[in-house]
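Q: Predict the assembly, please.
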Amino acid sequence: MTNVRSSSSEGTATMTDRVDIPAADVDASGTAAHTGPDNRIVVEDLNIYYSSFLAVKDVNMVIEPRSVTALIGPSGCGKSTFIRSLNRMHEVITGAHVEGAVYVDGENLYGPGVDPVAVRRKVGMVFQRPNPFPTMSIADNVLAGKRLNSKRINKSDAEDLVEKSLRGANLWEEVKDRLDKPGSGLSGGQQQRLCIARAIAVEPEILLMDEPCSALDPISTLAIEQLMNELKSTYTIVIVTHNMQQAARVSSRTAFFTIDGTGQPGYVVEMDDTDVMFSNPKQQSTIDYVTGRFG
Amino acid sequence: MTITDTPPGGDTIAAPTETTSKLGDRIFGGISLGAGILILVTLAAVALFLFVEAWPTFGAEPSTFNESFSSYVAPLLFGTIWAAFLALLLALPLAVAVALFVSHYAPKRLAVSFGYFIDLLAAIPSVVFGLWGIAVLAPILSRSVYPWLEDNLGFLPFFAGPASTSGRTMMTVAVVLAVMILPIITAISREVFLQTPRLHEEASLALGATKWEMIRQAVLPYGRSGVISGAMLGLGRALGETMAVAIILSPANIITVNVISNQNPNTIAANIALKFPESAGLNVNRLIATGLVLFFVTFIVNALARRIANAGFSGADG
Amino acid sequence: MTLTEQRPAPTEPSSSITANRMTRVQVGAVGLVAVAVGALSWLSSGSPNWARWIVVTLVTYCVGIYIVARIVEGRRQALDRLMLALVTSAFALVVMPLASVIWTVIERGTNRFDAEFFTETMRGVTGEGGGIYHAIVGTLIVTGLATLMSVPFGLFTAIYLAEYGHGTKLAKAIQAMVDVMTGIPSIVAGLFAYAMFELIFGPGTRSGIAGAVALTVLMTPVVVRSSEEMLRLVPNELREASYALGVPKWKTIVKVVLPTAIAGIITGVVLAIARVIGETAPLLVTAGLAQGVNWNPFDGRMTTLPVFTYYQYVQPGVPPSNGQDRAWAAALVLIIIVMVLFTLARILAHVLKPKGLR
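A: Predicted assembly structure:
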């Protein structure tokens, strides 16, 4: 079992250093590591269970703010389970629970008295298959999350928000003339960008993306990747992807998950800057996966 | 399952004995086709025979009956639709709530048993509901509910009273009918709620919705046409219900919306049940004519239900 | 270097993810208060009024939980809790009449659950005594005949729809008409049977066979629907394997498809029987009421269990308790029969299900 601490990335107030911080140092700084710059995610000893079955074990990682972090690894190794634990969507399945902690802005998402509903406002999610609400118009889709959280939005505020979110998702130009048409009438790539617009309309701090392009064609995929590049200046993005080339294209940090066999829990093998992970990883199984020897 | 008949002349697999198979297929296929056509014939026969039997009513001399057919059937038709409407009013919100309970709120292990309990309601014969209605429900309502309604809400034409002491009122009937049609509405609604794509439920939850908000955002819009179609089927069932009404209701030849008194318009079906066994001659024809009217009404309601169901499901796929 | 200038200012202050939640104890307290208030509603009268207790408790709980949650947790959470309370109350509310019906029938029906009741008829009986022997015989004959007519009728129609008539206009028309048939009110089916026999055999005929015809009209669409569904579930590979061996189509259906689907078909038939065995209205106008046993379905009135129940209650004679007791006991017998049939159907569906099919 490997316990890997991630090194810090660019753009933060702390010292940048491309060398792995030895585990002891981070442990010693203890709580100091939890409070940090905005939207930093610190995962500490996270074990994820489906009832009594351990699905993902002992995850420790730091995800730096306003960057894209990719999670790669073979099928079934727990990447999706892990990412869904970051916005407590994992618990939607009966009997699912976690041990350990996930700190965002110094607050433990799994602390006592924490409302999962409030967590999901802070941590947004985009799913593998686009899922705009079929009975709602495009504008209503964008506003769906906002309407839940606010009492009433007056018309002009609503229109502003729709435009801002759709622009933020690079979809405004394409749909601005048909905002009251159903969301299901768009192409796959457009629907996915609509879902992204819907997610960012509630102004989350973190955006989780669970294989967002796997159901899309290459052109749409490219559009989403370009979008990610723009969004990362505002949001912290964590993306699960099966596509290593995509991870190499969009992310600055990458974590490699694997699993020893069916029935075994998934775990993080290694996490590092993306270019290091794909050119010069430290662990043998990472090398094997990245060079295509398995997976 | 056995497959007999090895083909004669061995090596060509696909060559059965021409004559016997052709004959067998012809006969068998013919019987099947005949059965299918018999369905069409039966339906045509129902309409035709009823019409033939009803016809003398329309051609009869005015002196035979005290009134025209339309004035005879008008209060009955009103009573039929009014009772069914009231039953639907009571049953629909409860049915949707129970369906939601079973599909989304109850613990999974118990949900199946709960569904089974509700289906048990559908198994109870209507005559038993009639007995229960008049022996148990009517006294309870006439003791506790109707006097209160008359005292406090008597200014409304529905509760103008005087409150019946026997409880054999339209409102009692409506409650019993509601209990009887609830299982079918619940069953269809539950089906459709369970079919809400998980993807949309999760989209809602991921936006930070509470459970009820998710149901409002993802489940109910998806299930709307199914619920409506279930409601119309329940309405159709209530329109045709006979025995519960016949046993419980204290009928009179009036049209009124007063639901707590002893003077209530009867329904077509209950009227037939009450009068038919002792009727003869043209009275029988007239009763059958009212039956024809009932057939039309239920036919239209059921056709509407089918139309909505078909339109709805193709829309939800988009 | 800060990147914060690139981030648009949030329109709402960043909210904490912690929120006040009600504890289990608090929820339980609201529940207990509701139960107490419910008890108060009948306390003054002395004897427990279960219905009122339950209703008042549920209403109090719904109102109370909303108010308390609104104060402690906030509007959205309060609404969420209220909806949970409401749908659970709805379920409880629906269970009440069901429980009441079953309880009443058992309580009142057991007054006459004696040997005489099952072996005697009503011939010559006024007042006490009497039984349902003739009604049971009548029900068995009429329902049996109806089953004998509707099962082949319905099954062959289903075979046509599933095996021969795929997608043809005729099949669509037949399916639509089957739908219409399911919606026919039972009294109308009775009137049809009456009309048919009157037009053929003359006015005023009452017979068991007419009742069976009425029930057939009600049963057949149920048989068609469930059989068709079962036949469609049989995988096409089985049929193709049979054809590839040179088995003609009709034999394939009889020897391959039907045996595979037979469990579901039988279940459907049992459910159809359960549906019609309690039908009163169509039998009122066709088979009518007789005092004694009639073994001949082609001649004369024949009493059936539901019709017996009806008449015993609404024309109980003097004193009415005798007739009413008989009615309740007959109702109990009816319910038992229907429950047994339903349970049988469920068991059959489970036990006979061929492995590997759905």
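Chain A has a mean pLDDT of 83. Residues 23-290 of chain A form a domain with the Rossmann fold fold (CATH 3.40.50.300).
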